[in-house]
Sequence to fold (751 residues):
Amino acid sequence: MSTLLYRLGRFAYRRKWSVIGAWSVLLLVAVVAALGLMKPFASATTIPGTEAQRTLDVVGEEFPTDDAHITGKIVFRARSGATVSAGEAGVAVRRSVEAVADVRGVTSAAAPSAKAGTVSADGRTGIAELVFSTKKGGTLPATTKAAVEEAAADASRAGLTVELGGDAFSQVKVEVLGPGEAVGVLIALGVLVFVFRSLRAAVIPVATALVGVAVGVLALLSLTSVVTMDSTSVILAVMLGLAVGIDYALFIVSRHQTQVREGMDPEESAGLANGTAGGAVVFAGATVVIALAALSVVNIPFLTVMGLGAAATVVVSVLVAVTLLPAVLGLMGTRIATSTVPVLRRSTERAARRTERKGAGRRWATLVSRRRWTVLVVSLLGLGILAVPAADLQLGLGGTQDPDTSAARAQRLVDHGFGPGYSGTLVVLVQGATRTVVATAEEFSSTVRDLPGVRAVSPVVTATSGDAALISVTPSSGPETEATKGVLVEIRHARDAVEERTDTDIAVTGTTAVNIDVADKLSAALPVYCLLVMSLALLLLVVVFRAIAVPVKAAVGFLLSLGASLGALVAVFQWGWLSGLLGIKDTGPVLSFLPMLLVGILFGLAMDYEVFLVSRMREEHAHGRPPAEAMIRGFAHGSKVVTAAALIMIAVFGSFVFADMQVIKGMGFSLGIGVLLDAFVVRMTLVPAVMAILGGRAWWLPRFLQRALPDVDIEGERLARRTTHPASAPGAPPRQTDAARVAVGTGGGDA
Fold:
């Protein structure tokens, strides 16, 4: 692989304008395709194979409704002592609803009615149900939305609290790069300037990463015409594409810049950097892609789309890194090694002098080696404490919108007036022979009414066919609570005896039941998915490092960082610790698919850092260094680039914590804290400590595996051995490249 990437790098360097032109055409095609094919994002969650989803499909057939249009609601709240149905408040409510009904694009507007169940028991809260002419799945026109808001404002001027909610007013505007994300990119640029000591070199990884994100995201947007996709899939692709795109370019440019500064011909350097650092980039990208694509085994459509969409963006980022990046380096030539900024020039000279002395990376590795057991115990204790909250992990699908929006405020008014269970209704479907369905439904309705946690049960509704009936159950608790989940379990448990005695089928569905089934299915799939990913990690790392202990250590380290990350996620987003500091306005169950995404993405990034650190240790040991010295030298060369890569990841992921959507906040926080813990506690602290403890045993491999395993040469060692490197002195003859110096992760010397 290293030889192929070496040739590809030299080709792209020589044919730079052709390669850049090809990517420009591809970007233009992606823009045209997205503009012509993009459809509105979907918000529905379908889970094939679950009881709630199967029952929901049957309900749609037996009880057809006109749900082809967007719906919304206006929630009115009268002052103390007044009601929404009488007096001045009632007049104001009716006037507002009549004005809304006259708005162009509104099909119907039903005023609050006690008979329809849209007025609270105290009479102070009422819900006006709206239906718009816009087709379901479309976007409500801004003019219609503004006109409805203006008409509803008449009631607020009369002293009522008025908020708009429902699907029509819960649509989220997707910002691919908002102010927070732009700050993250700027921080990443600052880290790159510090690493490269050159502004022009620092701009290259950011620019190429943006190209990769643009192509990947535009391709995803064009696929919305044939694939059901929500906005979260696109934002995850942006988040991950930016982070890995900048990091992958960092590895290659850092290697190339170091070689050019040492006197290597720029074209040869671009090929060698692509063949060595580029090989590790391909491996790292492949691990992320495989882990994300493996999300499809859970058989949840929206999670499959999310994983495959993010994986496709990572593939584009890898292709950009090994093709477009060498072409851009061809534009730079020898200027990649210099800076036009005097401060950065002086910084480069000082860094070169520091490289000749012991760097921070060598000093840290030496300290860890001397205090290996203390470092090991302290690190394990710290990660274990952080992981404690993970035992209380609760999963759900709510809390995805900004709590400051009118839709969120409308929901809070409904919860306050009607009780939290009003929005968490469970729908019971009874099917059987026409002569027994109604009687069975009535009997089961009485049984459900007496269950703990049930607030109300609606009258039985019979289908036109006569062989199906519906019962709506309103719990006392909200849809995202354990109490409501308990009500669902009790209903399903109580039906068994009734089904057997009456020869009917009873099932429970509704949005709340669907969400609970999603969470349960994901909870059950998480251990299986973790086992799949861990097995993949062990297999890949055994092949890469040709050792047993190192892959086991890497896999255990990944589990430690994962547990600590989940613990921090629970503490902040579920328990509310530091939530105010991070701008988290609403706490509750963790988004059900977030742990699985964290496993997939963090696994790939952890293996990335493991390869860049430990591969150099392996090479030093292979060249005859004692185990302790090989660990210290390898860590010293790889620590700088891994530190920079981790800081960039943290900056990019962390910037998404300030997004409006709770789901994006959770993704940004969990990935940012995951990279922080894995890079600096596990890879930069635990790894050198364990390697010092293991010594030469770290590289043991049974003989039968030595013969059976392929040598993938991920570091490009064979390529490095045959590559000549001109001495830096003018006119000096070529000499053999020192494989120890050109290994992946050199990064310009000691950290």
